[in-house]
Design brief:
single chain, about 350 residues, alpha/beta, Spore Coat Polysaccharide Biosynthesis Protein SpsA, Chain A, 60s Ribosomal Protein L30, Chain: A
Length: about 350
């Protein structure tokens, strides 16, 4: 069974106010990379077809390399509308493709649980599977001039998400018919529905939000933080590195007391070759340890006169440059000081 994923990131971001919303970074990672990684690491996905704006090609390739994305087989130029972009990708897929998943890069918090759910629910007696979530707001419909026409039964209404999974032959046929008729749907499943196909829904994920406006970025950050407090999604876990640092210095006379880059008024300071900032030294060791590239003594030995009395904040800046070259970026630091 050959399964391919199409990730669409070719929109012009009218409501977001920028054509490059998928390049906005959350915790040092572009939105479209967040969206791709769960597919890249899911064993049942054979390849990924990424749809982007032509102008972004060079930038996208650089990010794919930086974040070690392996399964992107081809980068497709997007069309005028989202449906045109998906159609371009479908036309590029090999004929032996069995199932295709179509996902919006504007949903960067998709989990492998949702991906697995739509894939494993696919069967020969249905044409596609889509993830949905229940509505919590009261939904009304309006007449002209904003007059309320009535209240809809939200118990039978669902909010639809991506990725949406389809039998490849069924979805490409639906796209071809829609293209010939000039019909544009609001999602991929609507094309299958239009031509009498059968779509099954499965449970989506409340955190699988769509980034449409800049305000949505705040929701996204909150969703990521919420996951991290319990269990980050598989993609985030796979990219995390944890380091532990420890340092201690004795007090001596005639030295400044520097802790965390701050000079503390005191009659003694800490002994050391540099400014002996014990807190920053521990942080440096933790960062280097997380990257697996040695420790503070490896790069800033106390036998090197160039580091005599140097500010440890300078050493920290150098450390960040070192780990950056190893594709590591610190997200948070917890410290405890014993005195």
């Amino acid at each position: 069974m050959k399964i391919s994923a199409i990730v669409v990131s070719a929109g012009i971001g009218k409501r977001f106010g920028s054509p490059d919303k998928v390049f906005f970074e959350i915790y040092g990672k572009p939105l479209f990379i967040w969206a791709i990684e769960p597919f890249d690491s899911y064993e049942k996905i054979d390849d990924i077809w990424l749809v982007i704006r032509k102008e972004a090609l060079k930038k996208v390739k650089a990010f794919l390399d930086k974040f070690n994305i392996k399964k992107v087989r081809e980068i497709i130029e997007g069309g005028k509308e989202r449906q045109d972009s998906v159609y371009n990708a479908l036309m590029s897929l090999p004929s032996e493709t069995d199932i295709v998943l179509i996902h919006d890069a504007a949903r960067p918090m998709v989990s492998q649980d949702v991906i697995k759910r739509v894939v494993e629910t696919m069967s020969v007696d249905i044409d596609g599977v889509i993830p949905v979530i229940s509505l919590t707001d009261t939904i009304k419909w309006t007449k002209k001039k904003g007059i309320i026409g009535g209240t809809l039964n939200r118990d039978i209404l669902k909010a639809v998400q991506t990725p949406q999974a389809f039998w490849f032959k069924k979805i490409i046929k639906a796209y071809e018919r829609a293209y010939n008729e000039g019909f544009y749907g609001t999602d991929d499943a609507s094309l299958i529905e239009r031509y009498g196909g059968k779509i099954l829904s499965v449970q989506g994920d409340e955190n699988n939000i769509k980034v449409t406006t800049r305000e949505d970025l705040k929701k996204l950050e909150f969703a990521i933080q919420s996951c991290s407090s319990i269990m980050l999604n598989e993609t985030i876990l796979n990219s995390l590195r944890i380091g532990i640092g420890y340092d201690s210095h004795k007090f001596v006379e005639k030295r400044k007391l520097i802790i965390g880059g701050v000079e503390i008024p005191y009659n003694r300071g800490l002994y050391g070759h540099s400014d002996a900032d014990v807190l920053i030294h521990a942080i440096i060791d933790a960062i280097l340890g997380s990257a697996g590239v040695g420790d503070i003594g490896t790069y800033f030995p106390d036998t090197d006169p160039s580091y005599k009395d140097i500010s440890s904040m300078v050493l920290l800046e150098k450390t960040l440059e070192i780990v950056k070259s190893n594709k590591i970026k610190p997200l948070w630091v917890d410290c405890i000081i014993f005195a």
